[in-house]
Amino acid sequence: QLQLTESGGGLVQPGESLTLSCGVSESSTLLYYAIGWFRQAPGKEREGVSCITPNLHNTYYADFAKGRFTISRGVAKNTVNLQMNNLKPDDSAVYYCAALRGPNVQTLCEGGAPGTSTSRTGVNAWGEGLLVTVSA
User: Fold this and answer.
1) CA gap 131, 136 in Å, rounded
2) pLDDT in tens, 40-84
3) Cα–Cα distance measured from residue 110 to residue 46, given in angstroms and rounded to the nearest whole number
4) What is the DSSP letter of 87?
5) Alpha-carbon span 66 to 60, nearest angstrom
6) Contact in structure between 84 and 103 (CB atoms under 8 Å)
7) What is the reported pLDDT for 90?
8) Could you point out which of 31, 93, 101, 105 has its C-alpha 20 to 30 Å from the C-alpha of 115?
């Protein structure tokens, strides 16, 4: 069973940086699943932020993340990191790590709305979520 463990959320001021980390329970997950980050602000739909494809070949970003966020494999084994720079108050949300498969991965990762449930084609597993607050 896929298990995703997130770390790194918190409170930062506008313009500051934060790195979120997603640990996967088995290394084989990175071979067969895209790993991504989604976020959900109060009263809004969950939306795609960024993903990295199986074997870490390609990366996808929502428009609001391009130029500010970078997704990459972490130094620690079986981790994927999201480096977020120049954070803005609108970036405040609960951030969820997810494992995805299927034909809609790119669409979901580039700002798409995945919903909150899981499916065989789409998000197969969610992490518990991390609160990120950007405030002066």
Assistant:
1) 16
2) 999 999 999 999 998 778 999 999 999 999 999 888 888 999 999
3) 12
4) -
5) 9
6) no
7) 97
8) 31
Number of H helices, E strands in the chain: 2, 11
Read off the amino acid at residue 4.
Answer: L
Q: How far apart are CA 113 and CA 24, in angstroms?
A: 22
Average pLDDT over every residue of 85-108: 96
Task: Give the residue among 79, 81, 7 at the shortest CA–CA distance from 49.
Answer: 81
- Order of strands across the sheet that contains 69-73: 4-7, 18-24, 79-84, 69-73
In the block, tokens 């669409």 appear at: 107
Strand partners, 47: 39
Pairing of β 79-84 and β 10-12: unpaired
| 104: nearest Cα among 123, 80, 126 | 123
C-alpha span between 109 and 96 (Å, rounded): 12
